[in-house]
Amino acid sequence: MPQQSAEALTSQQKTTSRRPAGTLYRGREGMWSWVLHRITGVAIFFFLLVHILDTALVRVSPEAYNAVIESYKTPIMGLGEAALVAAIVFHAFNGLRIILIDFWNAKYQKVMFYVVIGLWVVTMLGFLPRHLYNVFNN
Questions:
Q1: Reported pTM
Q2: How far is Cα 127 from Cα 121, in angstroms, rounded to an integer?
Q3: Which of the four CATH numbers 2.40.10.340, 3.40.30.10, 3.90.650.10, 1.20.1300.10 does domain 28-137 have?
Q4: Domain locations in the chain?
Q5: Does 9 score more than 60 pLDDT?
């Protein structure tokens, strides 16, 4: 009897300790979508917080506000704007995917994740060249 329970335990450990290759997460595309949605959401939240604070500076000190606005015209901030647009676009497309899953069918979750990535890439390819041209040539 003890031998059978030891074999059963070993068998159970083998089946419960499996992980998908290359990732710690078990959810694959669904989990990565969830992680990216949370990261982009937090990034957008902090941008909005900073935006509200820097806009509020105009009431406190117009000179300080002008100095902050001038610092936004640097290439580093231009790259930050590109990252912000990338986060917003992914968050928006992925939010639509989540709505479709909630009201439609989770069966196509994997396909919809790759559609979101494809739409994000196409949108960013349309945005980035013009934006980076303006950032580095003005």
A1: 0.76
A2: 10
A3: 1.20.1300.10
A4: 28-137
A5: no
